[in-house]
Amino acid sequence: MRTYKENTSLTNFEFWAGGKDFADNLTYSELQEVEHHLEDLFPCGMSETQINDLFWFDDGWICEILRLDIDEVYNR
After folding, report:
1. 34: containing domain
2. What does the buried/exposed string (b/e) look like for 11-50 if buried means 16 or more CB atoms within 10 Å of the residue's CB?
3. Is 1 inside any structural domain?
4. pTM of the predicted model as reported, rounded to 2 decimal places
5. With 15 labelled, which of 4, 29, 50, 67 sits at a CA distance of 20 to 30 A?
């Protein structure tokens, strides 16, 4: 079963496991920028698992859209 939460912002999203490890290294403004990209790419929304998995397994892609070096993000 899929559940969706309305009006959940990435800045207050409760990440877990590897998604949390990566998200904790991003700034508030970086999370907002990622959120804007995701709203454009997924106009119907994403499940909580999809969001967390994106931050866990596609951290390189997130760094690309933010124009950041992944090693620098993890070394913050």
Report:
1. 14-74
2. eebebeeebeebbebbeeebbebbbeebeeeeeeebebee
3. no
4. 0.88
5. 67
What does the pLDDT look like over 24-43, one tens digit per residue? 999 999 999 999 999 999 99
HSE-up of residue 71 (Cα within 13 Å, Cβ side): 0
Q: How many structural domains does the chain have? A: 1
Q: What SS3 state is found at 29?
A: helix
Long-range CB pairs of 59-64, under 8 A, 24+ apart, other chains included? 59/22, 62/22, 62/26, 62/34
Decide if 58 contacts 47 (C-beta within 8 A).
Answer: no
Measured between alpha carbons, how far is residue 67 from residues 1, 34, 43, 55, 75 in Å? 35, 11, 23, 15, 16
4 domain-assigned: no
